[in-house]
Write a structure and sequence with these properties.
The chain has 464 residues and is of the alpha/beta class. It folds into two domains: 263 residues, 3-Layer(aba) Sandwich (Aminopeptidase), CATH 3.40.630.10; 155 residues, Glucose Oxidase, domain 1, CATH 3.50.30.30. The protein contains twelve helices and 16 strands. The strands form two sheets. The protein has an eight-stranded mixed β-sheet with strand order 1-10-12-11-13-16-14-15, with helices on both faces. The protein has an eight-stranded mixed β-sheet with strand order 3-2-9-5-6-7-8-4. Strand 2 and strand 3 form a beta hairpin. Helix 1 crosses helix 7, helix 1 packs antiparallel against helix 12 and helix 2 runs antiparallel to helix 7.
Length: 464
């Protein structure tokens, strides 16, 4: 019998173990690749996201918190998830703000010379009304420093036009949106501190068009509340040009918006129980509410239907998640985040263990990958799955902001994950009357849901 020296026997044994480990890893990777292919095949051949979105946008439409349409959407979400045959579907009660726009807003430039110029305007979410027609001169600023440098007499009794455009040099349009958003959020408060009677804000968009963009603004109870309206980008440019020619022109604004008492609403929750670790939860969600100017298709109807579809895809592909997977349609992301806060509050009270939370709230455009908020070691662990997604165009796994509704879970979970898609067109329609079903591409939408389901499958199988 051939005998090897002791050191050589140990070396050969170690090599044999490495070969077995490598072979096992290759088999596992192949299995995962095949299972992801099953998910994508199901999405592209029999996906339901697009038709679900057609119903949500066409039959229900815009779903501002507290509105009858928001209530209809809750019942639709619950019924739709019940039809999926999930292990559990239920509602989480949450009190939400109830702001109403009222009659269509009117805006007009009135110059000393020539006739008035009608403007496309819309109230910012949460604004007070004008109590009839409000007419005043206008002062334009592009930065907070410009506002601070103006003497009070140049601001008192006037509208302040906040006219800083989004920076087109940024590759990620969301970065430009975030940077310019302080005007919308804080413009009315800062203008009122100086005696202004109203705030006019350039729409947060890189497009040059006639659509005014709404969105949430805030007040300070210690400062007089003044009306705040958005002008389209073209309108803001037009007003700026006319001001240079005639600094004494006036602007007339009429808005009937008001805030009513809070209303009872709900998050909609559906889940598949994990087969091995049912107490570990993976959440995937979008926000069910939307602004009222259009149908809320990309913001965030797409995120809702993709989240529900992710669970359906797992079931249809015959993949039983080892950890509990929960889809949540959050209520009130747009003007309060009450739904996200309530979900986190209830999860903490129940001592639930959340492994990861995923959100889709950047539109239903072509998938790119995922943004991850987690410690560096966790980000690196998730990034090891990038090669599995590259064939589908979803292989960009980067550290970054994950989402507003899951942010309250940050201290209760190992990772927050934001579905990331091509954002170049998103802010053209975001918060406008153009956010309609016809702007959504079926394949892009279904591919996004499959990408989300694929990552959920891996998280459920391997944990973090």
């Amino acid at each position: 019998m051939l005998r090897f020296p002791s050191f050589l026997r140990h070396t050969l044994a170690a090599g044999f173990v490495l070969l077995l480990t490598d072979a096992t890893a290759q088999t596992t990777a192949k299995t995962d690749s095949l299972n992801l292919r099953k998910i994508y095949d199901e999405a592209l051949l029999r996906g339901q996201s697009y038709e679900n979105l057609r119903y949500l946008t066409g039959k229900i439409g815009g779903r501002l918190s507290g509105s009858p349409q928001a209530e209809q959407a809750v019942q639709w979400g619950k019924t739709t998830m019940e039809k999926l045959g999930l292990d559990r579907v239920y509602l989480q009660e949450v009190m939400v703000p109830h702001w109403v726009r009222g009659a269509k807003e009117k805006g007009e430039i009135r110059a000393d010379k020539g006739k008035g110029v009608d403007m496309n305007v819309c109230a910012l979410g949460g604004s007070v009304g004008t109590n009839g027609k409000l007419r005043a001169q206008v002062v334009e600023v592009k930065t907070w420093a410009e506002l601070a440098a103006l003497p009070d007499e140049k601001i008192r009794g006037r509208f302040v036009l906040f006219n800083r455009p989004m920076n087109p040099a940024y590759i990620e349009s969301g970065q430009a949106y975030g940077e310019a958003g302080d005007q919308r959020r804080n413009g009315a408060v800062e203008a009122a501190k100086r005696g202004a009677v109203g705030a006019l804000v350039r729409s947060l968009s890189l497009a040059h068009d006639e659509f005014p963009h709404t969105g949430a603004m805030r007040y300070d109870d210690k400062v007089t509340k003044i009306p705040a309206a958005a002008l389209s980008t073209n309108g803001a440019d037009r007003l700026s040009q006319l001001l240079k020619a005639d600094p004494g022109l006036t602007f007339e604004l009429e808005m009937a918006c008001q805030t009513l008492p809070d209303v009872k609403s709900y998050n909609v929750v559906g889940e598949i129980k994990g087969t091995k670790y049912p107490d570990e939860i993976i959440v995937v969600g979008g926000h069910l509410d939307s602004w009222d100017l259009a149908e809320g298709a990309h913001d965030d109807g797409t995120g809702c239907v993709q989240s529900m579809e992710a669970l359906r895809l797992l079931k249809a592909a015959g993949l039983k998640p080892e950890r509990t997977v929960r889809a949540v349609l959050f209520m009130n992301e747009e003007n309060g985040v009450r739904g996200g806060n309530k979900y986190a509050e209830l999860a903490k009270a129940a001592n639930e263990k959340h492994l990861a939370a995923m959100e889709s709230d950047g539109g239903g455009f072509t998938p790119r990958g995922f943004n991850i908020e987690a410690p560096a070691a966790t980000v690196k662990k998730i990034q090891q799955w990038q090669p599995l997604f590259r064939p589908y165009g979803s292989g960009e796994f980067t550290a970054g902001h994950a989402g507003t509704d899951i942010e309250p879970l940050k201290e209760q979970t190992k990772a927050l994950i934001g579905y990331d898609c091509d954002s170049q067109r998103y802010f053209d329609i975001h918060h406008t009357g153009a956010d309609t079903f016809d702007k959504v591409n079926r394949r892009e939408l279904e591919l996004g849901g499959a990408s989300m389901a694929g990552l959920i499958y891996l998280l459920s199988k391997y944990g973090l």
